Structures are given as structure tokens and as C-alpha cells.
Amino acid sequence: MPILIISGGFSFWIAEREITKEILEELAIITNLKKEMISEIISRNHERLDGITSRTQLRLSLESYVESPNLQDQDKIKQILEDAKFSIPDISELYIIDSNGLVLFSTNEKILGKSFVNSPIFRNSHYENKVNVNYDLNRELNLQLSGPLRLNDDFLGVMVMETKGDLLHQFSQLDFTSAPEGEIILAKKNEHGDIIVITPLRYDDSSTLVIPKENLHLPIVHSVMQHQGLFPDSIDYHGEKIFAATKFIEETGWGLTIHLHKNEVLEPLNYIQLVIFISVIIAVSVAVLGSWIVSNSISKPIKKLQFSTKEISKGKLKEKIEISGSNEIRTLALDVNEMQKNLAEAQKNLVKNERFSAIGELSSRLAHDIRNPLSVIKTAVNVMRQTSKILDEKELKKLDMIDNAASKIKYLVENVLDFVRSQDPKYEMVSLQEILENARNSIHEPKNIKIFIPSNEIKLICDPNQIEIVFENIITNSIQAIGDNLGSITVSCYEEMEDLVILIQDTGKGIPEDMISKIFDPLFTTKIKGTGLGLASCKSIIESHKGKLEAFNNPTTFRITLPKNPGD
Fold it and tell me: Residues 353-374: pLDDT tens digits?
């Protein structure tokens, strides 16, 4: 009997050790994943904030209003804030704190005039963007980002953007119904160096929990102190024994801790121990058999998940992980499946980009090698026409055929070079009419098609050579779409806030609806003699100008949106 009891106890110890190892490995994976998710949320919202604070009109109006309050500047600033809040659904509030620390403008009139002079979001945001979290009156978690408003190095105030914390709340807290064994905690330092927990806690209903920095036995403190690692035997803020993993989020200065309560994780194992000892008393055979079955039922899902994660690390991303077991393991499996999906998509995009890069490099070399022989052919044809007086009409037609073939090859080569050349735009102030006229003169304009361009003088800042290539390609496509039918191509232009919008409409047969989403893809074409690079090159040029190129039907319209001041 003592031997059987010792054997049962040893089996329990082995199983506990194995589970601990597997749990810590999975905690490390999930902690990395959660850190990346939170960093992505912060990065995306910093970009949103920069998109608002970088508006020249906002800073000019704010400077003018601060110097001399007036209704015109006040209405402009209010409109900019309302437009930004409307265009970004996640934003809950936007407000501007002036250089004296008072709320000067806000989408929430209740906080107008409120003082933030002693608030970190005002004091720490004079030169760079900062991030914070707070709770609103409904105890909902909000993400709070602040950034400086400056004009010519003069400090005008601070822009504060509050976003609904649903996403942050989702990534920083476990669903206790499906995973009751633990929680995910975000924490930061306060002005005294102590630790403040900024996410809801399972065992603490207060808005924030302050932990003295001296409590180095707590993983939460380690996470904020940038001590990243695994804790197989520790306690949480409530004094419960836990498994834990910590990460430090550099972008925010926050610490991330994920922990699982030992008594809950190991509860099935404790039950197994009881079953083993009872079974030993009842019957040795039943005890041994029961111990092996239950121990295997716990270890198998974890080992299966471990095997799957190792397969992912080897690049095998096709098979979905299906694991049965406790709610904790199911939740870990779902998170790993999500990570696997994201990795597969990233790998797919990487292969695609590498393929296009290789194609581009090869195409560029071939195009350059082909251009010189083409030039020799065309020059030889012209010399033969001019110097030979004994050629009959039949031979002249053959020369024309050679010249036309060389011209077509040259067109294809230029298309390839336009696509693979990735030069930054050389901006200058130019006339839109002049660029359109140059493009028009470079194109053979059939007699059955009329091209209309704007008559009013319009100035824009762009690289004229690159934009001319865009107009040539689109107008040429429109001419080919109209074909031999009578038709017209109309170019129009109008201003839209900070952008210049150019529309190119034709009376052609239109673009098939199932293809309109693909026409800007490289190598996609419906033309027998096309390369599939013309419109892709146009899209690349417009995007390098910080603009946008779109296509619509009824009538066929290409819409080019260019910023008036691409340098802002």
C-alpha cells in the first residue's frame, strides 16, 4: 500500500510539472500576441491623432483665434473637430486645450473651460504624442491620446482624442465566463513610481488599484519595471497563487501581465489525485488505470496545442487547430488560430511582394536591353525611307509594318518602365491645362472622338512628368474603350476641402462590374496587346503624390484626388 501511495503521489507530481511547463509556454505565446494587438491599437490611434493635428487650417485658425477671438475661426475649428469625430467612428470626444491649460474647443460642450493645467495629458504633450486611459461616468474604459498643436515652433495648445475603449478592453481582459482561470492586466507608473492598474480587475471593483513599487514579488510590478519573463510560482494582487507571464509595451510605458490561478488550472489534477487515492483503497488495478486515463486526458490537449504551435513555427500555417479540453485551453487554441491566420496572410503578402519585385527587376533589365535595338530598327527604317528612291509601294508598306511593330514594342517597353520605376515625385507649381495639353499632344486623337479639357486656369503642386503619364494612360484607355464609335472624353476639375479632384469621363462601353475592382492590379488586362501595367503604374504614381485613383461606371469615370499641399 505505501508503494502504491508513493507511486500515485509521484504520478501527480509528474503531471503537475508537465502541465506547468505547457501552461508557461502557451502563456508566453499569448502574451506576445496580446502585446502586438495593443501596440497596433495605440499605433493606429496615433496615426488618427496626427491626421487631425497636422491640418494646416486647424493650426492657422487656432493661432488667429487665440490672438483675436472671432466667429469665423471659431466655426472653422468646430467644423474640423466635428468632421473628424464623424469620420472616425471610434472617437468619443475631441477637445483642444489652450496654452493656459483650459479647454478652448470641444465636441462635448460640458467640458468647455475645464482646467487641465495639472493633468499629465497637458503637461507631457507639449512636444510629442502621449497615451493614457481613463474611465468615463459610466465606468467604461476610454483610450485617451494627446498631441501638441504647434505652428512655426510656437506652442498653441494640446489636442486630446478620446476613443471608445471597446477594442482595448477586449484585448486587455479575458472573458471570465469562458476562461475563469485568470485575467489580463495593463498597468503603468504614477508620478511617485508606484504601479497603477488601468484595466478592470477580477477581485477589485475600484477604478484603479495602486500597488507600491516595493512589492517586487508581484508580476504586475515586474511588468512595469520592464522585467519581462515567466513566473511559474508567484502570487497576484489578491494573494492567490498563479502562473504568470509579463511584457513591457515600449510605446506606452505600460506593463502587460497575463496570469492563471493555480488552484483553478490544477483543479482537475487535484481531483485526479483524490480519485487515485480512493481508487488505491478500493482496488489497486482500478487506481492505476484511472490515474493513467485522467492524466492522459489532461496532458493530451496541451501536448496537441504545443505540437501545433511548433508546426506553426516551422511555417506550416494551413491546418486549423481543433482542441478539446478545458475552457482555458479552448481559449488559447482560438488565440493561436487567430495568430496562425494573421501569419498566413502576412506570408502570402510577402511572397506576392517578392514575386512582383523579381518580376519588376527582370522586366526593367529586359526593357532597357530591348530599347537600344528598337531605336536602331526605327532609325534604320527612317534612313531607308529618306535615302532610298528605288523602293516601290509594296516595299514601303513593309517598312511601315516594321516601323509600326517597333512602335508597339516601344509602347509596351515604356509601359513596363513606367511601372517599375519608383521615383519620388519632384514637386513644382504647374498648370493643369498645360499638363493636359501635353498629354493630349502625345496621343493620337481619332477624328470620331472629341476630347474636352477645362478652360479655366487651375494650378496644382505635383510632378508634371509623372502626372502627364497618368493622363496619357487614362485618356488612351478611354479612346480604346470608345473604339470606332462616335464619342467624347471630358476632363473636369473641382476643389474638395484640402484636395483637388479631377474627373475623366468617356462615352465608351464601360468596365465589366466583375472586373472593376481588379483593373489597377499589376499584370491584369482585358486587352490582347496590353501589358496590364498601365493603370497599375497610374495608381502607383497617384499614391506617391499622397492621392487616390478610383474607377466608376455609368458613365465610365476615373476619379483622381490630389492634395493641394502634398508636403503637409
Answer: 565 565 656 666 666 667 667 7
